[in-house]
């Protein structure tokens, strides 16, 4: 039994190492050990196993690690039939061409949102949206959409999270959620990032279940409140069409 627990711990730690690369291309041994709070010797052994299976690669020049070819092989064999990130990409490109700004697709994971797909604006000055980025649910247009249209129990859990940032007034946030449900979309101006603005709408599947948040983002001096209100109609229309595409 103890041996089984030890094996499970080793698997969990190996997965924790791989998850370190969700927001970094290359990491050194010390960086990884610090991120997952393990001794460097333990991390080194796990990295050696992952490297042997092709899940990570070590650059001998820098002594840093990056994801290996096995990750891409697994990704290539993912089912695309129900993957919103793939199904909705053509519609996202269409919306980008219509509004001229960066388009992103977000899903909720616990008390965070993850960008699972993005189509960059063609404008010289634009907001770059890296896929895989995680952000808190307390701020941002997409976050508010994902919370506003979540079921009541999930919404209560998010709002009662002890780690809720003190800088965000919960009562005011709840009022925003009510307004979002009336309007059908959410806006944000420099809530998470200086100089950035966004407008987002919910995507529901055919059963009426919230699947994702569709967002248009860009520089706040170009994506003004007036502009976001103008964009809201084609954004909500695109979100409605996308919802019809998802089983």
Describe, in plain words, how this protein is organized in 3D.
The structure is a single chain. With 247 residues, the protein is an alpha+beta fold. It has two domains: 73 residues, Winged helix-like DNA-binding domain superfamily/Winged helix DNA-binding domain (Arc Repressor Mutant, subunit A, Orthogonal Bundle), CATH 1.10.10; 162 residues, Beta-Lactamase (2-Layer Sandwich), CATH 3.30.450. The protein contains ten helices and nine strands. The strands form two sheets. A six-stranded antiparallel beta sheet has the order 6-5-4-9-8-7, sandwiched between helices. The longest helix is centred in the C-terminal third of the chain and has 21 residues. The model has no long low-confidence stretch (mean pLDDT 89).
Describe this protein with a few key phrases.
globular
Give me the CATH architecture of the largest domain, please. 2-Layer Sandwich
CATH class of the largest domain: Alpha Beta
Point out poorly predicted stretches.
none
Tell me what portion of residues adopts beta-strand conformation.
15-25%
- Termini distance? 42 Å
Form type: globular
Coarse structural class: alpha+beta
Average pLDDT metric = 89
The Rg value, from CA coordinates, equals 20 Å
Major sheet description: 6 strands, antiparallel
Bin the helical content: 40-55%
